[in-house]
Amino acid sequence: MAREPGSAGRPKASSRGTIEEAAAELFLEQSYSGTTIEEITQRAGVSRATFFNYFESKSDLLWIDADRAIERLSECLASGMRVGDAIARAASEVGAERVPLAVSQAEVMGTREELVASGFARVARVTALIRSALANEWVEERDSLAVNVRANALAGAVIAAWGAWIRGGVDRSTLLEYTHDALALVQLEQ
Question: Could you give phi then psi for residue 24, rounded to 5 degrees?
């Protein structure tokens, strides 16, 4: 296919996807810690600058789909959607084929330590997003213990659902189903 005049380099969507695939291959072949950003960019056929256009760090490659879901949750909450509905919408948009290899294959890829280290920031972001939205919903109780407890319970349910979904194997149901089940367990399904 011919390129448009003035366009240079690999198409953006292709570059990101190629980097993701190259990283997954290398993590499986030689482990996460045994793989450098330079090796990823070389395998992907992109520059180091291109890598950093998409990812702030190598650990961001472990969280691609989780970060997309968190961003979607943020967008839904910013649009005024109720918390339970926003969580469900974000979960519904994660396809069954998108189980993160870095988590499901943590032993093979050697990602367990980095997942723990870099995962905390994502858990904290989910909790903060939910807490902020609940504070807006419960204006009269904005700084209350109830808002904090509910935000942490909801975030915990979301994280537990994500983990159960990943461990579900080939017969897993959708992330949305796991999410509904987890929210029901904390009696907060909306």
Answer: -60, -45
